[in-house]
Design a protein that fits this description.
The chain is 32% helix and 34% strand. It is built from three helices and four strands; from the N terminus they run ααβββαβ. A hairpin with a 4-residue loop joins strand 2 (40-47) and strand 3 (52-56).
């Protein structure tokens, strides 16, 4: 049985450079957050490093778009 070793994981994370940490999850995670565009509610999608990717009118469409690009969407409030 494989078990997760939290001490080993913590040691690994502490050894990451600031550049490595900044790119952590870059190709796997996208953030979706509510925004206002032209006085209308919308949802912006950002890469893990904060780079804006797109703005969509509906939250469900934003999440579906992220998933269609083989990434995991995370909500930012």
């Amino acid at each position: 049985m494989n078990s997760f070793n939290t001490d080993k994981a913590a040691t690994f994370l502490r050894q990451l450079s600031p550049q490595d940490f900044a790119s952590f999850g870059l190709d796997h995670v996208a953030y979706v957050r509510p925004v206002t565009v032209d006085d209308a509610p919308a949802f912006s999608v950002h890469a893990a490093d904060g780079t804006p990717l797109t703005v969509l009118a509906e939250r469900d469409v934003a999440f579906a778009t992220v998933r269609q690009n083989d990434m995991e969407p995370l909500s930012v409030h």
